[in-house]
């Protein structure tokens, strides 16, 4: 089976957007400490760049969920595979996602993390596919809205491949 990549968002555009998001986020939170919660594995590259763009007082933790198989469609069932190490009670928590697709992952995570009584709980995602949404979910910071296509690169994978692409590409098969 052959696959080819069609560039959708260049590395330069991603960098400019990440800087813009970082400045906006730091301005919105004043000098408060922010707990960035990266959702593994897809967010790791975005989180690394975003954390530096936000600057100031910040802690980083990770959670891992599983809902996708190695294929392209969501099962809709979300499980926690790795929980946070940090106690988030009374903290300003910002969930960092690579992409919001159906919204199932974020709905589940928001519910779970809000039971731990953070001071605030918001979401920042690099990409959003509005046409794929099955659950309405507030997303405070969105980098790019993209069409309902399967994308890879800059942390996003297909069967664990392509995460190291420096740009976002549509994966076309066949
Ligand atoms: P949701 O729960 O359907 O919103 O899916 C969120 C997760 O599915 C993301 O964190 C990604 O890991 C994965 N995902 C959704 N769409 C894509 C895509 O186009 N490429 C790669 N992974 C995706
Ligand atoms: Mg993910």
Distance between the termini: 6 Å
Overall spatial form? globular
Supply the helix-strand structural class. alpha/beta
Mean pLDDT: 93
Sequence stretches where pLDDT stays below 50 over 5 or more residues:
none
Helix percent reads: 10-25%
Biggest sheet record: 6 strands, mixed
Sheet with most strands: strand arrangement? 4-3-2-5-6-7
Q: What is the CATH topology descriptor?
A: Rossmann fold
CATH class placement:
Alpha Beta
Could you tell me the radius of gyration in angstroms?
16 Å
Figure out the total of helices: 3
Bound molecules: inosinic acid, magnesium ion
What would your notes on this structure say?
The protein is of the alpha/beta class. It has a single domain (12-148), classed as Rossmann fold. Helix content is 23%, strand content 37%. The strands form two sheets. The protein has a six-stranded mixed β-sheet, with helices on both faces. A three-stranded antiparallel β-sheet has the order 1-9-8. Helix 1 (11-28) crosses helix 2. The protein is globular and about 50 Å long. Bound molecules: inosinic acid and magnesium ion.
Write the topology of this structure.
Layout: E1 3-9, H1 11-28, E2 34-40, H2 44-54, E3 58-68, E4 74-82, E5 92-100, H3 104-114, E6 120-128, E7 141-145, E8 151-152, E9 168-173
Helix pairs in contact: 1-2
Bound molecules: inosinic acid and magnesium ion (MG).
Q: What are the key terms here?
A:
binds magnesium ion; Rossmann fold; 3 helices; six-stranded mixed sheet; alpha/beta; 174 residues; binds inosinic acid; 37% strand; three-stranded antiparallel sheet
């Amino acid at each position: 089976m052959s696959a080819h990549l069609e560039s959708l968002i260049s590395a330069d555009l991603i960098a400019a957007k990440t800087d813009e998001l970082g400045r906006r986020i730091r301005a919105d939170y004043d000098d408060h400490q922010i707990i960035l919660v990266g959702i593994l594995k897809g967010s790791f590259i975005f989180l690394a760049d975003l954390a530096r763009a936000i600057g100031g007082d910040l802690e980083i933790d990770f959670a891992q969920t599983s809902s996708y198989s190695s294929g392209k469609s969501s099962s809709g069932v979300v499980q926690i595979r790795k929980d946070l190490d940090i106690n988030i009670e009374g903290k300003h928590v910002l969930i960092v996602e690579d992409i919001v697709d159906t919204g199932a992952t974020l709905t589940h995570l928001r519910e779970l993390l809000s039971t731990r009584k953070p001071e605030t709980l918001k979401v920042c995602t690099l990409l959003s596919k509005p046409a794929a949404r099955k659950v309405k979910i507030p997303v405070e910071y969105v980098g790019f809205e993209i069409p309902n296509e399967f994308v890879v690169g800059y942390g996003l994978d297909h069967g664990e491949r392509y995460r190291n692409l420096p740009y976002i590409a549509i994966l076309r098969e066949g």
